[in-house]
């Protein structure tokens, strides 16, 4: 393991990508105490005692920041079939269930390994434990990131309704034996979950500059109003950020309207949830009023284009989000619904997707826009914008070094355009977090990858074998869920209003 260099370091001779300016230019960096101490013109004087680091032929970027992922699903790469979000949730008990506390650590390490190798140095991780979160589970997840040398916000996912209870009419549409089957899956009470979260927040054992806790009532429809209010009060008491999936699917938007007689966004605002510490994941099925409200409250949206494509959820209107003043970061979402944790892929998709919303190229997102989202925007979602997401004096030395000799940058015409449109992560030679080298010569320095791989393969076999009966049970019910949800999305089935919350 490479320790943090005690001596200041002068990184000389590289090109540096600055997200705030949307530019790439030659610059030398002085790193001191794990932070960026100075940025100077090439060759300009830096302290004599600084160790010289040669960055010739390197492009240096800030570490990318993943604004939305779920480490417990790092086990489920390649498992999702032709599933919409609703079928993904229906299958959740076997894709993401049956894990123990040791698995929390293992899967956080697996997530960290992939992200670090692909230039991502911080993430917002929403972790599900059933039937309720535990301090041991959350602390183990956090330890997985801390030991990998990565930064993270780790949040327990909260719900006091199951998926089948959350959508009005779905449970009732199932045949009796299927209904009995899903009724056997229960969530712990909101009181029990909030008490566990209180212990998580009060006894957090990690350095909060590296790994900090938050709260994630997972989906508005999955949490009762009292649960939401309790989570908000807890977050306020502990200064913890909040995160929820918001209007990810058309069905959620319709079900929200039926249950609350207003949009999901208005419902959350009525409960006092929205604010600068709130991140909404996806935000695909939002109206103009919703975006304006999120913008007024200073909230963030984590845009997850690869997941949205994989689940056929729809196209998020990112230019409209930005126009409404919403802060936008980029996320990969879980390996069960995008199969990877690659922010280069996400940046590229975000850029391409914006081209589907308008015939006017002036409306399209630029490489500089999406690069800023994957760095500064996501850092803002994590509440770490004063520490990460940029290359400026005082910020942490969370840096990615890419080889400009790689085929992705050859010929070198426009480094920023090639970073977004050509790079996939394979040019990365070195990654540092707080000045500590965590990837060197494209290899992890903090994780024994062959051992991690062996453990992951073993646990995936064991967990999915143990979950096989539940998988079969849910597969038998899936056609009914599919029929109801597809009918709802297509307008063939109407939802009964349910004012009860
Ligand atoms: Zn998610």
UniProtKB/TrEMBL annotation:
Tell me if RNA-binding is a UniProt keyword of this record: no
Q: Which GO terms describe its molecular function?
A: hydrolase activity, acting on carbon-nitrogen (but not peptide) bonds
Q: Which SUPFAM superfamilies match?
A: Composite domain of metallo-dependent hydrolases (SSF51338), Metallo-dependent hydrolases (SSF51556)
Q: Which organism is it from?
A: Ancylobacter dichloromethanicus
Amidohydrolase-related domain location is 60-438
Q: Which UniProt keywords apply?
A: Hydrolase
Statement: the UniProt record of this protein carries the keyword Hydrolase: yes
What is the official name of this protein in its record? 8-oxoguanine deaminase
Per the UniProt record, the lineage of the source organism begins with: Bacteria, Pseudomonadati, Pseudomonadota, Alphaproteobacteria, Hyphomicrobiales
Family designation: Belongs to the metallo-dependent hydrolases superfamily. ATZ/TRZ family.
InterPro entries, alphabetically? Amidohydro-rel (IPR006680), Metal-dep_hydrolase_composite (IPR011059), Metal_Hydrolase (IPR032466), MTA/SAH_deaminase (IPR050287)
